[in-house]
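User: tokens in, sequence out, please.
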């Protein structure tokens, strides 16, 4: 999982077919709990690209993506959002990744 910012997140999503992005904040406890789980999911799903975005450094993209709370995890296929999970719910994130890989 790579960390993206306002300068490269759009390109990252556009350059890859399947992308899962975790939106979070560095000081957010649920975000900190979810991040290593998603990092493991990225190792378990090598055909999907994973990114972490700190909402404080990507405010324009977060507004554009309608991210209202963190953590939020969004899956994209060919740059189009195909689903999202709001909150620290590992089970729902795994289901989102399964949906993205079908």
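Assistant: Sequence out:
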């Amino acid at each position: 999982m790579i960390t993206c910012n306002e300068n490269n997140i759009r390109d990252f999503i556009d350059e890859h077919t399947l992308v899962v992005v975790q939106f979070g904040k560095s000081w957010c406890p649920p975000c900190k709990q979810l991040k290593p789980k998603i990092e493991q999911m990225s190792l378990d799903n090598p055909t999907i690209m994973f990114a972490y975005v700190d909402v404080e450094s990507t405010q324009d993209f977060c507004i554009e993506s309608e991210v209202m709370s963190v953590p939020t995890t969004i899956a994209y296929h060919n740059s189009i959002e195909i689903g999202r999970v709001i909150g620290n719910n590992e089970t729902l994130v795994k289901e989102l990744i399964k949906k993205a890989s079908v």
